[in-house]
Amino acid sequence: MTTPSPAAPAPVLVLVPGATGAPTDGGAPFHLADATVPQLSITDLVATRGDGVFETIGAFDGVPVNVGPHLARLARSAAQIELPAPDQTVLAEAVDAAITAHPPVAELSVRVMLTRGIEGTGIPTCWIHARVSDDWTPYRAGMRVAVLDRGLSTTVTETSPWLLPGAKTLSYAVNMAAVREAKRRGAADVLFRASDGYVLEGPTSTVLVRRGDEFLTTPVSAGVLPGTSVKSLFTWLEQEGMTVRDELMTVADVTGSDGAWLLSSTRLAAPITHLDQVELPVDPELTARFEAVLKGKA
Ligand code: PLP
Question: How close is the Cα of 264 to the center of ligand 1, in Å?
Answer without folding.
Answer: 5
